[in-house]
Amino acid sequence: MANRVFNENQNYRGTWVMYLLLMTEVPILILLSVVLINSDRDVTENLVGLSIASIAIIGTFLLIMNIQLQTRIDDQGIHYKFFPFINKWRHIPREKIKSIEVIHYSPITDYGGWGLKGNKTSKAYSIVGDEGLLIDTGDSKKIMLGTQKGPELRDFINDWREG
Fold this sequence. Notes:
Blueprint (H helix, E strand, L loop, with lengths): L5 E6 L4 H22 L5 H24 L1 E6 L3 E7 L2 E8 L5 E6 L2 H5 L3 E4 L3 E5 L4 E6 L5 E6 L2 H13 L1
Parallel strand pairs: 7-9
Antiparallel strand pairs: 1-2, 2-3, 3-4, 5-8, 6-7, 8-9
Helix pairs in contact: 1-2
């Protein structure tokens, strides 16, 4: 298994989250535009209000579309970052890993949804889906990294443990 590497990059582009945001934000923006343009208020007030609402809606959409979970597993260990919240690679050395397995989980009931979740003893980083890599580092600390490549990751982890 020498120099074998597993890489996965996940984001919300092209997922149901993106389409849900578009289906809610675009009609709200159009409705707000129609209401403000047809109101009796001053035109500059309407434009300021519409500009602020547009910036907030577009900014939210761009933030969510730029969220990205990157995972890399190599001979040294597991590396991950959750941009824009975790900008630097975090590293879990292979020696510190007590157990590791690919699991099926319920995002809402097990972790409270997708995204960056956690407390003192466990952290979960997920974009979409219901599979993840559960890493136990001992010291009552577990990390779950979501994956959309469950079968491929499961095969890789089985080889990685042996190597």
